[in-house]
Design a protein that fits this description.
The protein is an all-alpha fold. It is 65% helix and 0% strand. It contains eleven helices and no strands. The two termini are 15 Å apart.
Length: 238
């Protein structure tokens, strides 16, 4: 989410010497980017044991990796690999929910894969709704969920667009301005005034930090709580 749904603050692989599942999952949730084939290798090496043990923590972390790999391949040209990765997300989401029926990430993975396999239906929207209800303010999950919701924003009912706006609001008010700026640049134009309305209660210094980060990410802010953007028109990409 042009940026990845899962790697909105794209960066290069931070540390090839430590490929523990927990570390990689944490870095992906924080916005870092790994090579998709490497992520698949890690998943394949660890998934059988996690499924045998019905280990929710391990299954959750592996699903983070698989979602990241799949999100990269569905935007590429290898359709067979994209289909395979989407299928893997669906299967792993089911495995996670079988072991932990209230696991919000499982429903998010089910939503993401079902949208690609079935389109936007009442069933797929119900998966996203459950993810919001089960974890409305879990920040690491919100950082992954809001870009996926932004991609489908125009097709979402009001209660789910409200959830997406709240996810962004929580990221912003946790002072994660870099992540908030990257999310804002990826957001649909129809959502931006709502996102910015929720930022007006912070100090001018904090809002300006966000404003500069949005500019640095190639975005533009036009809102009553921010100064006008005086850059030449050819520099305004959004």
């Amino acid at each position: 989410m042009g940026a990845s749904a899962l790697t909105w603050a794209a960066s290069v692989l931070p540390n090839l010497t430590d490929l523990s599942v927990s570390r990689v999952a944490g870095q992906i949730a924080a916005g870092e980017s790994y090579d998709a084939p490497l992520l698949r290798q890690i998943v394949q090496a660890n998934l059988p044991a996690a499924q045998r043990q019905c280990d929710p923590k391990a299954l959750r972390e592996l699903l983070v990796l698989q979602l990241s790999a799949a999100d990269m391949t569905v935007r590429g040209t290898d359709l067979a690999q994209a289909d395979s990765d989407v299928d893997a997300v669906q299967r792993m989401s089911r495995s996670l929910l079988a072991c932990a029926p209230t696991e919000s990430l499982g429903y998010l993975g089910a939503f993401w894969s079902a949208v690609r396999q079935e389109g936007m239906t009442a069933r797929t929207l119900a998966f996203l709704g459950r993810s919001y209800r089960l974890a409305p303010h879990e920040l690491w999950l919100q950082l992954m969920r809001v870009p996926l919701a932004f991609r489908a924003f125009q097709a979402l009912p009001p209660e789910l667009t409200d959830g997406a706006v709240q996810d962004f609001n929580d990221v912003f008010h946790d002072r994660l301005f870099g992540s908030a700026a990257a999310l804002f640049v990826q957001s649909p134009a129809s959502a931006r005034s709502r996102l910015l309305d929720a930022t007006c209660d912070l100090s001018e210094r904090e809002r300006m930090a966000f404003w500069y980060l949005v500019r640095a990410a190639g975005g533009r802010i036009q809102h009553r709580c921010y100064p006008p953007d005086d850059r030449p028109r050819y520099l305004l990409d959004n």
